[in-house]
């Protein structure tokens, strides 16, 4: 039975002529000593366990701090990676749009060049055709000229005036000049119309 402070306080000893019974007092003191030794031992064990628990708690707190720091570092790293990925995606998108705009611009310029070259080729072809047609018509008119029939007619007639070679060449020169003037007028009108068509093509291309 463990001794409490009340037991010590209310403990009564048998009185004798010489005072307390020494044996009872000694026994009680021995019991008190033993109980206090047990209490001291329990106290030391409790303090030891408390210290161990405190060390464990401190260890866990340290682990928790390290874990929290690791989480923060990982979160920061994830945020940085996310931000870098976003910036890189924006750069890639910007470069792609820039390249696409450049390609579209180059394609439009090339289309304009092709349209202009096509218009020039058509105009030059049309002018060449007109000149060739005029040349052929001029030669046909010279071939079909009735003066050749008169000149080559072998039946002599006194009343028929036979033109000289100079007269024939002079008449031919006048007719060639007249045809050339008419051809130049038609060519100038055609070139003006072609230039108007080219301008219309350029305006239509720019509008698109």
UniProtKB/TrEMBL annotation:
Sequence segments annotated as region (Disordered): 184-208
Residue ranges that the Swiss-Prot or TrEMBL entry lists as coiled coil: 29-124
InterPro entries the record matches: DivIVA_domain, DivIVA_fam
Main location per the UniProt record: cytoplasm
Subcellular localization, as worded in the UniProt entry: Cytoplasm
Family: Belongs to the DivIVA family.
Protein name: DivIVA domain-containing protein
């Amino acid at each position: 039975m463990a001794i409490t402070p009340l037991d010590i306080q209310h403990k009564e000893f048998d009185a004798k002529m010489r005072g307390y019974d020494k044996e009872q007092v000694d026994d009680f003191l021995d019991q008190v000593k033993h109980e206090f030794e047990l209490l001291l031992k329990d106290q030391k064990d409790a303090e030891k366990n408390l210290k161990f628990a405190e060390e464990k708690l401190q260890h866990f707190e340290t682990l928790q701090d390290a874990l929290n720091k690791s989480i923060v570092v990982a979160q920061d790293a994830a945020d940085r990676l996310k931000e870098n990925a976003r910036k890189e995606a924006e750069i890639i998108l910007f470069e792609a749009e820039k390249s696409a705009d450049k390609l579209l611009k180059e394609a439009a310029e090339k289309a304009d060049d092709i349209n202009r070259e096509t218009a020039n080729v058509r105009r030059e072809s049309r002018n060449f055709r007109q000149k060739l047609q005029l040349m052929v018509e001029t030669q046909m008119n010279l071939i079909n000229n009735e003066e050749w029939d008169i000149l080559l007619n072998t039946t002599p007639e006194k009343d028929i005036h036979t033109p000289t070679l100079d007269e024939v060449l002079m008449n031919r020169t006048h007719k060639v000049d007249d045809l050339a003037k008419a051809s130049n007028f038609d060519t100038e009108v055609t070139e003006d119309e072609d230039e108007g068509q080219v301008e219309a093509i350029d305006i239509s291309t720019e509008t698109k």
